[in-house]
């Protein structure tokens, strides 16, 4: 199935511009990989969700999690994961990573359970650290939730936040070309690092105010 890409400025906030590129596993009609970009009064929530398994069941499970995240986006990321964990108790579960960006302070708080990778590509490669990577916690949301320890880090205009499911090979974080638009970067990552044997999704969000 051909890759589906999307680029859209977040409605209701000037905080980010974003794009998602995704591809359904060959032979399946629905993808178990979903994204959430949900603005709220004081920021915006980003998420990439991977329903365990494939096809309709995985898509339905991921859809439950996505709906919860959209409804409760202003809550802390650990509270959101706990909500999803309770709601998915009778399912195979999901793995997911969340990033909550603040419009009041130049910070982002993120948290991941499972193997949905997260990376920040700095607008200035000299920043320290130049490319923060999300520390993932082993577990499955809905089955076995680890101790939740979110991390808050500074972000600034022009920085990019990337979330990628395991259908994207981990080498996607090398040579990110952060000067590309979110759309072009998402498409490039999917084309270069997407696996043909799994659903694949990469979400790219750039903080507004930097050099495009």
General description of the model:
Mean pLDDT is 88; it is low at 1-12. Strands 3, 4, 5, 6, 8 and 9 form a six-stranded mixed sheet that branches. A five-stranded antiparallel sheet has the order 1-2-11-10-7, with helices on one face. The chain has a single domain, classed as Phosphatase 2c, domain 1 (4-Layer Sandwich), CATH 3.60.40. It has 212 residues and is an alpha+beta fold. Helix 1 packs across helix 2 (77-87). It has three helices and eleven strands; from the N terminus they run E-E-E-E-H-H-E-E-E-E-E-E-H-E. The protein has helices at 55-71, 77-87, 182-193; strands at residues 4-9, 16-23, 33-40, 43-51, 94-102, 107-113, 117-121, 136-137, 151-154, 160-164, 200-207. The protein is globular, with a radius of gyration of 16 Å. 45% of the residues are buried. 19% of the residues lie in helices and 33% in strands.
List keywords for this structure.
disordered N terminus; alpha+beta; 212 residues; Phosphatase 2c, domain 1; 6-stranded mixed beta sheet
What can be said about this structure in brief?
The chain is built from three helices and eleven strands; from the N terminus they run E-E-E-E-H-H-E-E-E-E-E-E-H-E. It has 212 residues and is α+β, with helices and mostly antiparallel strands. The strands form two sheets. Strands 3, 4, 5, 6, 8 and 9 form a six-stranded mixed beta sheet that branches. The chain has a five-stranded antiparallel beta sheet with strand order 1-2-11-10-7, with helices on one face.
